[in-house]
Amino acid sequence: MECNFAGTVRESTAGSGGPSILAEITMRSDQLSWLLAPFHVAALATGAKSFRDNPVIGSPRLNRAGLHVARVRLAERLVAWRRERLVSLISEDDRAAFDRDGFILKRNFLPLPIMRG
Hints:
- The protein has 117 residues and is mainly α.
- The chain has a domain at 1-47.
- The chain has helices spanning 21-42, 60-64, 67-86, 92-101, 112-116, and strands at residues 2-3, 9-10.
- The chain has a two-stranded antiparallel sheet with strand order 1-2.
- β1 (2-3) and β2 form a beta hairpin.
- The longest helix is centred in the N-terminal third of the chain and has 22 residues, at 21-42.
């Protein structure tokens, strides 16, 4: 049995004629990956960001084909849609501050005794 610094354990196949434990684990994870493919694709529409955990998001081929750019554009459209829905709930001054600065600052929002804790 071998163990490397990454913690991967590999059982020797010398004389056994069978696949290594590592090969069996890799084979199982490949099969599991196919089963999880619909969830990985569905995660494209979420805030999922892990290139390692999601093989679709982390696919170099799909990203070269424009997947990342498409996700960024979709996110921008979703943000614009949300802002349009919420615009009637804030004042014109707050809206202008957000458009200008990217945030809204409310000075002395909480009473001083609450701020002091």
